[in-house]
Each structure stands twice: as C-alpha cells, then as structure tokens.
Specification:
Elements: H1 13-17, E1 23-27, H2 34-51, E2 56-62, H3 73-81, H4 84-89, E3 90-92, E4 97-99, E5 104-110, H5 111-118, E6 124-129, H6 137-143, E7 150-152, E8 158-160, E9 162-167, H7 175-180, E10 184-186, E11 193-199, H8 210-222, H9 225-232, E12 249-251, E13 262-269, E14 276-285, E15 288-298, H10 302-312, E16 321-323, H11 328-336, E17 342-344, H12 351-360, E18 364-367, H13 372-380, E19 383-385, E20 392-396, H14 402-421
Parallel strand pairs: 1-9, 1-11, 2-5, 2-6, 6-9, 12-18, 13-16, 15-18, 16-17
Antiparallel strand pairs: 3-4, 7-8, 10-11, 13-14, 14-15, 19-20
Helix pairs in contact: 2-3, 12-14
C-alpha cells in the first residue's frame, strides 16, 4: 500500500511518533479531540499488526461498561469509516470489529466487573483505557501485568504491548493522575522514559466544532470558574479550603467605563531572573474590583520595561502607578524613562495579610478573560496547610503571587484611605 496521510491534532503527533513507549496517555477537557484520535490510532495499530502477520487483541476498556453501548466501539467505528483504506480493511458488525484477515480483533470490557475475564483473552497487543479518571488502584494492579506481550516483528524490531490511557481529570490524587499524569513517565529504577502524557484541551483541537464553541461560551458565562475549567480546560475539580480567593473572583469579558467607574489604578511588582515583572490595571465599580489589563515577563530588562508596559497597559503614562518600595532604584530608573507618575508603596509589617483581606472585602474581583496569568494566580494563591494534619493555617504561601502583589500595590492608597475613613469601597467615588 502506498503512503497515506493521517491527520492528527499537532500536539498529539509526538505522542504517537516516539517509538518503544509502554504508556501513551492524554488528559484534558471536553472537545479536545483526544478520544477520536486514540480511537483512530487503535485502528492504525491494528492494521499494522495484521499486515505484518501478527495476531492478537486490541482491548478497549472503561471502568464501567454494562453493554457495548457504554464502550468505545461506536467511536472506533466512526474513526474507521472516516478513513477509506481502514474502512476497506476492517469488518464491522453490530457486536464486533476485526481485520478482514481475522488476525486482529477488538475486545471491549468494563474493568470493575470483568477484570478476571481479561486474563482469558487472546494475547493483548494494545490496551486502551478511556474515561480513566475513575479507574481504581486494584483495576490497574490486575490489568497492567496482563498486558505483557513481547514480540519480535518481521522487521526484526522488538515490540512490547502498549497501554494507552485517556481521561478528563477531576482529582489530582486519583490513581490515574498519580501514575500517568506527568508529561514524562519514568522507570523508577533506571530513570528511562517509558511513557508520555499530553494535555489536550479544546484550544488544541484544530477541528473544534462550532456547536461546542457555543456550548463553551455559554458555560463560561453561566458556570463558576472552577467548574468551567474542569469541563473545558482539563483542570482538577477542586474547591480547596486553602484557596485564598475561593468564591471571590469571576473571569469574564467586560468593558470598563472611565466616566462612571473609579480608576484606573495601576500596580507594578518587580521581578527578573525567575519571577516576572508584573503589572495590572484595575478599576472599582459596584463594590467590585475589575482587572482589565495585565502585563508580565520574566527577565524583563529595566530599559525595556516602559515600552513593554505601554504596549499592554493602555495610557500607563497618564495615571499614577504604584510599585514595590524595595526597589527604589528601579522606580527612579522607570521615572527617568518616562513613567513620570510612578510612586513607591509604603508596605510594612503585615501588608500582605492586610492587602489580601482588603481585596476579599469587595463583593467580587472580576478578571478579564485576557488576563490569564492573573486568573491563574487567583486559582493557585493559597494558605499554608499543615503537613501532618492537613489543616489550613493562617499563613499566606509566598508563591503564585506576582500579579496579586501588583494588585495590592494598585489598591494600597485606597486601602489606607478606607481605614482612615472607615467606609465601604463603593463609597469612595470622588475622594481622589
């Protein structure tokens, strides 16, 4: 047969191109194309085995499967029908898929209730576990040693049975996430890479359908951020008690109204070698903090900072900006470069905790969808948890906080004015 081009999402090409892997895995949110791709690649693998005269079974498993309608069978059939040479190569009936030379066939099973029957299967060339989030430790203990073929192919190459795993993450400590969630899966004794895991989300799917895009946008508007990210961005579904801004922020598109809103307030946190220089533009309206622009980069030289910020923070030269007072020489330098209204914040003992509590005193923090690093920090910024008791401690972890520090600096003068006047943030209009 002449060469045939198979279209895959570009992000998954390295996963299937690398030879001699025991595990090929992909995790992520809805609409990523990972299930359709894995279904197609099982058929490609089956074709290759049958053409080389290798006989065996392609096992497709899920934790629960009460009938074939609960399996991956229909997904695989659709993938086969979409590729003419595969459609010609396989026989497909209501309850079976097999190569026409009868060397390779598919088998479908549920791991929860059919594990013991797997041992009676013909030699398993490939096992694909789909919807693997709920697969138990015991299921893996029984299944993995069963997929154990070692074959010398007619080409002289040595082949070992492979295990493919796909799932939508929910818990970061699930057996699937702990064993197969790292980008590289290493042999614990030799350190050799024996598997890969690629994260796939809707943005990685070049054929993401418009009908799902409508659903995604609807979910972004109607769901809380954690649930939305779990469904569409492959995030773990977590509402940790340690999360500092839990239930206090929202991510959405909006347009600031300079005529009616207070602000803008601009904060800058300096970084360089490992930490980003981070800058935010902030407004106050309706007892909420609104963040509409961010800028940040690791390794940003001082001489490049002003032009870099100007491209990302509209009208930054026109308004006061407040920066970390630990870097007076940097503030002076930026002022000489044209950021003439930059000032140092006062900070002081307890300023982090005070700033965090002040931000939490607002009804909500609204983060524009383009401010992705700010949104990330709001999700990750946490209190310390006791290692032995897992209890949340009143200690702010100094991590994932560069844009949040910039936010504290932007709001520091307002916080001090509010303390002096003892009034609500939404009553501050016209005081500056």
């Amino acid at each position: 047969m002449s060469q045939v081009a198979i279209e895959l999402p570009p992000k998954l090409i390295p996963l299937f191109s690398k030879p001699n892997l025991r595990y090929r895995c992909s995790k992520g949110g809805r609409g990523s194309g990972k299930t359709r791709t894995f279904a197609l690649m099982t058929a490609i693998k089956g074709y290759m085995f049958a053409e080389m005269g290798v006989s065996g079974t392609l096992l497709c498993a899920r934790e629960f499967m009460n009938s074939l309608s609960d399996s991956s069978m229909e997904e695989i059939k659709q993938a086969i029908r979409a590729v003419p040479f595969l459609n010609d190569y396989y026989e497909m009936g209501e309850n079976y898929i097999r190569s026409k030379n009868r060397l390779v066939d598919y088998s479908f099973c549920g791991l929860r209730h059919n594990l013991d029957s797997i041992k009676s299967k013909a030699r398993i060339l490939l096992a694909w576990i789909d919807e693997a989030e709920s697969v138990s430790v015991m299921a893996y203990r029984k299944l993995l040693p069963t997929v154990r073929e070692e074959i010398t192919l007619p080409t002289g190459e040595r082949f070992i049975s492979e295990i493919w795993i796909t799932w939508n993450p929910e818990k970061r400590n699930s057996p699937t996430a702990e064993q197969f969630g790292n980008p590289e899966i290493l042999d614990p004794d030799t350190g050799e890479m024996i598997g890969m895991c690629v994260e796939m989300n809707y943005i990685d799917n070049p054929w993401f359908p418009q009908v799902l895009e409508l659903e995604r946008r609807k979910d972004r508007s109607n769901l809380d951020d954690a649930t939305y990210r779990w469904i569409w961005e492959g995030a773990y579904l977590e509402h940790s008690d340690a999360q500092i801004f839990k239930d206090k922020y929202e991510i959405k598109d909006f347009e600031a109204d300079p005529q009616k809103w207070d602000g803008p307030y601009i904060g800058i946190d300096f970084g360089f070698a490992q930490d980003p220089t981070a800058c935010l533009r902030v407004w106050i309206h309706d007892d909420c903090v609104w963040i509409d622009h961010e800028a940040g980069r690791v390794g940003l030289e001082l001489d490049d900072t002003v032009p870099y910020l100007e491209k990302r923070i509209p009208d930054i030269r026109k308004y006061p900006s407040y920066a970390d007072n630990a870097r007076p020489e940097s503030i002076s330098h930026l002022k000489g470069k044209g950021l003439i209204r930059i000032k140092a914040v006062e900070k002081g003992k307890g300023s982090v905790e005070d700033g965090v509590e002040f931000i939490k005193s607002f009804k909500k923090v609204i983060i524009h969808t383009r401010c992705k690093q700010t949104a990330y920090e709001f999700r990750e910024y946490s209190y310390k948890k006791d290692r032995l008791t897992d209890e949340v401690l009143p200690i702010v972890v100094d991590k994932d906080n560069h844009y949040i520090d910039a936010l504290r600096y932007a709001l520091e003068k307002i916080m001090k004015r509010k303390k002096g006047l003892n009034i609500r943030p939404d009553a501050l209009k016209g005081l500056f």
